[in-house]
Every structure is written in C-alpha cells, then in structure tokens.
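Colleagues,

Please find the record for the three-part complex below.
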Amino acid sequence: MKTAAALVLACAPALSAAAAVQQPAAPVRFAMGTELGGFDPAFANSMGHQVLQRQIYEGLYEYAYGQPGFALQPLLAASSETSDDGLLWVFTLRADARFHDPWDEPLWPGRERAVRAMDVVESWLRQADGGLATEGFWALEDLVVGLDEFRAQTARGADARAEAWSAARAAGGIAGLRALDERVLLVRLIRNEPDFLHRLASSYTVVYPAEAVARSGADFVNEPVGSGAYSLAEWTPGEDATFRRVPGWRGQPDPFGGGPLPHLDAVRFTRVPAGSTRLLMFDRGDIATLNPSVAWDRLVVDGREPAEPWRSRGVKLEMVDTPLVTMLAFQMRDPVVGNVPGDEPGNARRRLLRAAIARALPYGRWLKEVRNSHEGRLATSFLPPELAEAENAPAGPFASEDLAEARRLLAAAGYPDGKGLPALRLDLSGPGEANRRIGLILQDGLARVGIRVEPELNAGGKYFERIREGKVLLFPYIWTLDWPDPANLLAVFAGGAANGTNFTGFSDREYDRLFAAFRALPKGAERSAAAHALLVRLHQELPAIPLDHLRGFKLVQPWLGGYVPSSVDMLPAKYLYRLETSR
Amino acid sequence: MASLAVGVSLVLFLVFESRILGDPALRTAGRRASPERIGAERLRLGQVSEFETGVLRVEADCDRELQIQVAVAAGSLVLQLLPDGPQTGAPLEGRSVAEVAAALDGRVLAPGVVLRVRPDSLAAGARPAAGIGTALAGTPAVFDDRGGVRLGWARAVPAPRRFLLRASRLLRFDFGESWDSRRPIGPELLPRALRSLALGLPAFTLTTVLALGLALLAAGARGRTDRTLAWLSAAGMAISVLVWIVVLRALFVGELKWFPAAWDRPYAAALVLPALIWVAAAVWPELRYYRTVVLEEMGREYVQAARARGLGTGAVLRRHVLPNVRVPVLAQSLAILPFLALGSLLLERVFAIPGLGGFAVDAVFHGDEPVLQAVSWCFALLYLASQWLADLGYPLADPRMRKLA
Amino acid sequence: MKRWLLVLGIYAAVAVCAAFGVLGADPMRQDGARLLEPPGAHALLGTDHLGRDVFAQTLHGARVALLVGGFAAGLAVALGAGLGVLAGWRRGWFDALAGWLAGAVAAVPSVLLILGLAQILGRGFAAVYLAVGLASWVQCFRIVRAETLRLADREFVLAARAAGASDRRILLHHLLPNLAPLLLVQFALHFVFAVKVEVVVSFLGLGLPLGAPSWGAMIGHAPDDLAQHVWWPLAAATLAMAGLVLAVHRLADGLRERLDPAEAPAA
C-alpha cells in the first residue's frame, strides 16, 4: 500500500500546481467537437485551426460583423485603390496596427512592432512556398503575377528555395507582390478576379511577422504572434486554448454601439469530443453556445425555439443561412452510375438511374431527422439562396420525393424495381452519429424503390482519399463557398479531372464551354443567366444531387451578448460581450 | 526483451508501408489537393527526397471526347485510352524524361487522336523517367484533350532506409511532428501521460484498497456476506463500462449537478467523478481476484496452525494474510502501471480529459504513424521498466524471499 | 450450474428464433413517424432514434452477441490453446518464439490493438471476430502452456511415452482430455470479454456493419439518448447483456469449481 500512496503523492504536485493558478476573470468558454489544430496560418485546413487563428491573426480585410450577406470591411488595410481593369491593386496599411509578442524573451522591446507591407509580402510568399506543403495556396493560385513561379522555384530543392527567398527579400517582393514602402503594398493580378478582396479576408492570407516563424521553427504552430485583439495565454496543444486581450490594443469601433473592442478579457476554446458532454456543459452554463447535434431530436422544438427548461432560462436559438450545399455525389467515371466515354446509349441509361435516385431520396426524413427540421433548407438548385444569382434559378428534378416517377425512371434505366442493379456502396466521411444516421436513412429511403445501398463509414481522412482516387461511387459531399460567388461552386464540375477539386470526376465539354463563357462575364444579369445555363446542364446530367443548404444553428446562453452567428466568419471573439444579467 | 520495442515499431512501420490504411499523402493533402500538392506532401512525409512539378507535359489532340489515364505498371509509363482503349507504354529503365517524350511524341492512339508529350524544361529532360512513376504512384492523373496534364517528378526514399531513419530518431527520442496536426509530438507526450496518471493512479489505488478490503471481509465472514459479495461482483462485471460511465454521469452531472461535466480547473475536482466511475466499474473483477488470493493464503498450513493456536479471524487476516498478500498486490500494481499512463480511453473521451489514451485513439483513427510510433515506443519502454521493477521488487516485498536473499 | 445452463439455453433459443424470423420481425425497419417512443402498446420496449423497435433489436442482439462472443472466443482459444500446447510440449525455440509473440501482444493495450485491427480490417462481422480474437489470445496461451508443462511431467504422460505413443497420440488422447475443462473456462471468459468489448468498439465508431442489431450499438448510442432522457434502449440492451454475461460467468465458475474446488468463489 505504501507504494501506491507514494505514487499518488508523486502525482500530486502536478495537480496542486495547476489548481494554484488563479484566473483574473473567468474566460467565456466555447466547446468544439473537433481537435483544435494549431496556429500556423500555412496549415489552416479545418475549423479547429481557423477558429483559433481568427482570434490572433488579421488579414487585410474581414467580413463586416453582424451585417447580412458578405459585406467586407478593411482590417489591416486602411485604404485600397485599383486600376480600371482590376489588375493592379495598391493597399495602404493602417498606421496603428502592431504585432504583439506574448512569449518569453520577446522579439521586440516592449513586445510590439508595427505591421509593415513587407510582412504581408512574406506571409503570402510563405503560403506559396513549394517546400512547405502548405494548405491554403489555392486561394492565391493562378492569380498573382509571379507567385506561381515562386512556388515552382521553391519546390525545386533547398538551394533553389533559399535563392528564391533571398531574391524576393532583397527586391521587396516579386513581380506581382511588392512592398513599395513601410505601409504601401502593390499587387498585380493575372486576371480580373471579382472576389479578390474576399480572398484577403480568408484564413490563408493573414499577416504575421517572419521573425516569429524564424524564432520558433517547428514550434511556431504552438507559439503564434499576430496583430489581433487577443493573444494566446494558455495552450494545451490540440485540446484547450485560452486567449487574453492584448494590453493596449489599438481598438476598433463596436458595430453595436458599445465601447471600443474587444469587450471580453479572455475567451477559451476547449475540445470536447463527446456531443453529450457538450450538452451537459451547456446545461450547467459552462459554455456559451451549443451546436445542437443530430442525435438530439428533442432539444429544439420544431426547429424554432429551445426546449424546456432552457427556453424559460432565456436560452436563445440563433440561426444563420450558410453559403454551402450538401450534395449526394456520384463518381462520374464509374461504369455503374457514371459516364463511359463513347457509350452514348449506356450513358443515357445511367443518366436515368441518377434521376431515379434523385426522385427516390427521402427528403422529408433527411430534413426532419438529419437536420432537426429547420437546420437545413431543401435545395431546389445547386446555388445557396443567399447568392444574388440564385434568384429565379431553374429548379432541378429533386427536392421532392416521387416514388412512382422514381420507379418509372429506374425501369427505363434497365433496372425494373432495382432488379439487376448491384448494391451501391455509400461512402460516408466518418464514424460519427450524423454519418451513421445519414447512411441508415438514405439506405432505408432508396430501398423503397428497390435500390440497395451499403453504407460505409470511413474513419480518419480515408473518405477524401477514396474520393481522390475515384474509388467511391455514391457519397454525400458538402461544398462550402469560400466567397459568395457561384463560380466558386460551379468550377468544381468544370475542366474534367485535371484539377484537384472536381470530386465527381464530371467531364462534359458542353459544361466546360458554358463555364468558360460564364467566368469571363462581369457581375450582373448576363452573368446570372450564364450561371442558370450551367445549372440547367447540371440538372440534366446530375453528377450530384443537391440535398440541402445547411443553416448555422446554435443555442446561445442568455448572458452572451454580441453573438451573431456568421456564415462565413469564424467566431471573432472580439465582438462578444457579457450581458449584465448574471447567469 | 528490448527486441520487443523495436519489433512493435517495425510492425507499425510495415502496416503503414503496406498501404492497408491507405496512402497518407493523399489523406493529409486534403480535399483540395492538386497532384502538385500531393507531391509536396510526399516530400514532407519523407516518402520522397526530391519532388518537382511539371517536368513532362502531355497533350492530346482529337475531334471527340477522350480520356487518357496515366499510370505506371511494371516499370513502364502507361498512357491508356479509357475505357479499355489501346495502351501505349514506354520502358522507363535507364531512359530520360526527354527520351520518353520523344518516343511518345505524336504517336497515334486511336483514329483521329494524336498525343504529344514533351519535357517542360531542359533541366527536367535529363532526369530518369522512372521518377515520373514515383511521383504518380497513387495519384491518378486522368486528363482529356482540353488541358492536357503536367506530370511531376520525384525521387523515392527506399523503405528500409526510411525505417532505419525513423528507428534511429526513435532511439534519440526525436519523434518529429504529427502527420495530422503538424505539431511536434515529443513535448506533448509527458503532459498527456501525467494527466492520464492523475486519473488512473488514484482511481487504481482506490480500487485496489476497496477490492482488497472487501475480499478480506468476504474471506473473514464467509457464509452469507461472502455469497452476497460474490453475487455483487458477478453482477457488476456483467455490466459494460460504458453503462457505468453513462448512467453515473447522468445521475451525478445531469441530475444532481455535483460534478463538472468535463476537464476543467480545478483539475482535482474534475477528476473525482471519473475516478469514482473507474472504481465502480473496475472493483468487481479485482474483488474476485483478491478473494481467490486471500482464500488461498488462508488455506495454507501456517494460517491453519495460527488458527489452531486460537487466533481470531481478524488477527489472522491482519498478522498473517495481509503481509503475504502484498506480493500479488505489488505484482498487479506494477503490471498495470504502464496501462495507467495510457489512461482509460472511454473515460478520457467522455470527460474530455486530454490524456494519452485519447491521443492514441485519435492517431489510430487518423492513421497518424509518427504519433503511434511515439506512443507505442514510450509505452513499450515503460512496460519493460515495470517488468524490471517487478523483478527487483519481489524480494523486497516478500519476507520469505528476503530471507533467502 | 443447471439454472445458468437453462438461462444460456433461453438466449440460444431466442437467437435461433430471431435468426429464422420467428421472433422480433425486422428489427431494423425504420419508421420516421415513430421516433423515440417510450415503451407502450405500440412497441413493447419503445422505439429508438430512427423509429426502430427496441424489443426486436434486443432479441436480435442476442443472436449478434452469441455470434461475436462465440467466434471471437473460439478464435482466441484456438489460437491460445494451439500455441500454448505446442509451446509447452515442444519447448525450445518454439516456446521462446511464441512467448515473445505473446509478450509483444500483451505489451499493447488490448482495446487499442482491437481498434487498430478493426481499422485495418474494416467494418463487418468477420473483422470484429478477427480483431477481438487476435488481440485476446495471450491469457489463454499462458494458462494452457503452464498446464501443459505441468501435465507433461505427470506419470500417465510419461507412461504413454514410455509405451511408445506418438506425439500426436499423446496430445490428442492424453493431454487434450485433461485440458478440456480448462479450455471451456477460458472460452467462457473470452466470450464475456468479446461481448463487452464490442460495446466499446461500437461507441468509438468501428465494429459491426452499420445497421446490425447489436447491443453494443444500442449502448453506444446511450450517451446521446440519456442526454434527452431516453433510457429504454440502454436499459433493454444492458439487462439483456448482463443476463447473458452473468450466465456465462457463473457457468465458468461452476466449471472451475469442479476443476479445483479450493479456488472457486462461493455460491
């Protein structure tokens, strides 16, 4: 027994030391189901990365908080000018933007340094560095003069990489991306990109000091230095992050009329993998918001208000439309459901099979049981309704069940009552409850017309890997628009399989022709019409069946103020405040 | 015995090498991955030592729909017209990219189809064409006559060399970074293990004390108490750990609200309920085990002799049985120590305790080889250490062995 | 003993009836109009989150549990006993090798090993049998090996050997009958382990095919169920499983008592 007691004692310091740290003000806490990634903007491919990084880093622009649509407002940029052809951009940075270094042995006396145009250049060049396997280069790819060449050169081994970097540093940038002086940045584009500024509000184009990367090396992912309202105070890698207000931050006007931002002294994000645990935490008032999980059929009444006892406690239900579309996609190179080059009669039959599936899907149950009734809006076309181009968009042959029509189409496709059709494997993105439910409900729905489906839960990243390899046949796929333009979504069906985003492998000459015409048009009625023509083509060919447009759907504690669920922005904590009515 | 640690990491390496779990580069490169991005990923994961994009450009020219798949088979670069179209291959051994390009240039694949292949840069032209196969491995490059496709070039690192590299780094406790999160692994292991131990050690100690106490009680009282306890332990063992967790949590967190729902400050308070649940779920098999041990001890001659001398049951248990039960208790404790450092997978997941167990489970799900290598390496060393300690500890704990020594 | 044999018999009968569709018709039929109904007239034990009948699922769960327990334990005992007997009988290099292998498997926490194997093998019945069987044979191996070593020096074996009996004959006619009760006990313990570990694997997201009526899936869904006060799938699966596990456990105890009266628990 003495041994055991000694072991307990050995462990005690760890506990007491932890308990001794006193909090000045309890942080407002949020729980997330996914792993909290890290703080390197070059690797920001998941929500677990982006929510954390949003608190620390700033880009030239940000989404205007609390405003509908996708309005932008300058963040690090003080002003911008552009040439008539939209190819030349000149940005002037704010004079009062400063990096704050919270770590031991700070980089600069006073822990601060002004943000300079060269920081923007180096941050974007690092995103383009071919030797780094970065995740966000696609946001700048084929856009900035000289950047793709810089990427190719840096991918050519250590020597070429060092050479490219030192040349860029010496010249204050590259041909299309250059610091003109401390605060003025020049960007030259390859083509007119209507959504260029939206790209500058993304997680991939934020600005950070090169010194911090050099100091921390591989640990930069744990030791961020940014110019935002908060800095990282405590960090349990992957699990828990506490941010504290940067002392003397430059401030920002509150869109709701309060004092200068930020309001909260501290915010905290914790990874809580089990949904039921997040629910208990919300019930106890530990966390500020809760995403109602697919498994909780009884916590929200009719998708409109929180169930008791939360409603009488003042818990709010916040909903926001999100620019994304959930699709049931086909592998278009598959000989059972897709297109076989040269086999026109067969392709026509397989088109009928896809149409039959589109008519047999259990849309009602999908909405009620997968989306808690109001968490999604059934899709009548591929475009999320909040896009301007979605207005009067042609409706496709889906969104409502028609089993008789489905049976007729199935028979016309050569599979009366599903006879002769092999069981279709349905690949799902993970083993979670939502995917299990989706698998079982789709299986049950399609079985009504005799189509057999075998759901397969792919753990880890296997799902995307299988899609990449073209090994999947039928799979739900969510496309979140990176900026509010239909091109962002419609592009994934264009260009055959040469690009990495075409997840269906759809390759259609007619579609590509229409897409090229559409892409060249400036925003306006003509462009909308061109987008509609693309939709008509997609509705005919059905490389994927749109299911719904998901809503952001959150329960919010009565004491949290300033919370506006945003469809594009990742929970910028600087806008939040605590209401005086205590919990 | 140290062969065990190396053996485990070799097995892990072979599992990942076999690609049963898929191609890690395709997985970590994510859904927007272009072939170029996948190449960069292979470079990062150490599968290749050199990678360059677009050394060869393949274009087709025809008057109808066309899909050509580029693949590598048996040392040849194969360009195949889909579906089941004519194939054309060029032997790669000993030839350069420029030579392959020249061999394929303008070759007619089907009526009306002309294929053009040319190196994109002069420097690339001198390179062995086998590198294209390496770059393409696992990366389907399907193209059509509209854009053509640019093929990359890579130099592979042979598997044995990769294993030696990894093993030598493991020996130096240099674990590298996680494939998945890209965070350095080394600094995360100890804090996570300590958190797992902070739950496991008190819970295990409490379980052992309680089980031993109940076992002594059962052995001392015999009869009805013994039968009741035997029944309880059988019933307790028949209930799944998950049921214990879920039901006790619903009671103490959901209804009574006595404990926090997740890991939080003060940590000791957050660990009370998980530890109690651990005890509630684990005490039954332990009770069963210790009851057998105690009964065995009580059946020995010296105990019978002591009883015959008129010693009461309590005194017998205290003076004779308890000291001798120390050996199996110590053995059990030392054997379980490494497992305590790995924590309880279920409790850590449900109570959001950022321990080592959850880390390992995530790594299994994500197929994160460096994390699994690091965790299993440390675990194996700990396991060996505990066995070694047990060998050392027996003589100290057992008076009989001490006398012999 | 007899009581528990009867209980086990009832479970087996339910499993067979369920397999042939006599009992609990169509346990996986979903009914979107009847989600999460509490026990009542329509469904004896209520319905689950997809409107499936909990009672029918519980009955069919017996079939799945017997399959998982039976095959996984069978594999573990076959592997453990086979290697154990050979190691104990042959000794020498084979013993060393098998001992090393057992040490390596024991050095990996079993649940982690099962998760890893299940991840490699994919989802399905065979995958679960294999993963659980391959990860849990070590205990059986160690006990059988020790017992074989003990028996090998006993007079009847020495006598048989002196009489010129072949190895095969000694193993089959002398060792195996003496090992049989021990193997039966081991089988029971592995059976219980397999049935219980299926719950854990199921909760963590691997295991049987989606839509297989298993108690593990029912219990695995319980955290979310209980959060909204839905207790019936958990209660049904827990009680059904506890009955089976208890019966097998008590049978094992009874057997052990016959083997070695001193070591068995009372009752």
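Confidence is low (pLDDT under 50) at residues 1-23 of chain A.

Comments are welcome before we finalize the supplementary table.
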